[in-house]
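Anyone? Bumping this.
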Amino acid sequence: MSEKLDFFIIDDSDVNNYYTEDLLNEFDFTNSITTFLKASAGLAELIRRLDENLKLPEVVLLDIRMPEMDGFEFIEELDEVLDDREFNTKIFILTSSKHRRDVEAFDKQRIACEFLNKPLDKPDIMVMVEKHFM
Amino acid sequence: MKLNKNIPFRYVLIGAVFGAMFPAVAIIADCFVFNSLEANFAAIIGQIQNNPIHLIILTAPIILGATFYVIGRFSAKQRKLNQDLLQNNVVMKETNELLDTFNYHVSHDLKNVLNNQIVLSRMVLKYVEKNDQKKLLEISDKLIQVSENGLATVKQFLVMSKEGYLIHSASTEIDIQVETAKILVQNGCEERIRVRFTRVEYLTIEIQKKVFESIFVNLLTNAIKYNDNNPSAEIQLLKRPEGKLMIFTDNGIGIDMEKDGDKIFAPFQRIASSSNSEGTGVGLFIIKKLVQAHSGTISVKSSLGQGAEFTLFFPNQIQ
């Protein structure tokens, strides 16, 4: 792997963020972790970095069921903002339920690359990093 | 749907007209085909009196009318059954959809609770190995909080599914101020929110105790959850000629009525978020259902950052 990875975690569950952050910190490839309790805050930060040509995170871990804006609304809005702009950040859906409705919504979109089940553990993260960043 | 009364009468008309054709044909045949009578009224009457078979045939419109009436009634009933069936089908489909949604949210919320417990337990194991007491304490605190949240979630879903049963249990006269104080203590809220009765025009209300408890627990926990300052609530008990008003005002983060006004009483809507609001989104839905089950109404006035005012009205004649 050429460089270290920056992570965004977008999830309204602070316990899950607390755990995922702790888990990611165990890996040498982790450079930074930023957590957002609201999808809108995470989206605003991504757009700001895009607009100001700042470095984007390599990975976004995105929960689905959140108040105000849910994971799929986040994806929809990001898709609109991106249009044809280059965007190399990998977005992973991170959810505790693989409900039919969520799987259908996942299949319809083109931004998120994988569907991960909560809770993440070390092997999950290693597989994910090996597949996409090595 | 009501039975269509016109259908049997339409059938009677058809039966009677059809039946009238038999005596008409018989008389014409008897008078002008088999016997060459003159076409006058007296001659025709004479022929009918001579031949008693005509009297029997003359009953055809009555018999066929009656028969068709029976068929008509049967057909109307059948039509009504079909319409009812179609209507029930629509209701069933809607109910199914609601159950599916309910199932989605319940399983998701409970899974979240259990997942949180799993990940925190994993962290306990990790930091026991590292012998990091400070971190262990922090994790234990979170574990307790997660479990308490889980319990509250389960309780809420139970209330939702018990709704039907609550409606049929008996109402009792309860003292609102005494009961509110009890609810605060029982739910460990007395330290977390300051509740004042600012106007009291009546003391008691006829209501099912569990219903009152559900309504107040939900209002109080919302007031605590959706609040960035020191939660407090004011309750006014006002008497009106047609019933009793309870006005519950909190100092929470408020609701953007323009954006979310029509969503707040719908199930599984989590419109607001603050740092500690991990909810199911069924609280206000439950309150509304329970109030409606007592023939009451609930409305809300609010704006962002200005707290919320819930007005509950229970009419005098509680059914």
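Late reply, but here is one note on the structure posted above: Strands of chain A lie at 5-10, 30-36, 59-62, 90-95, 112-117.
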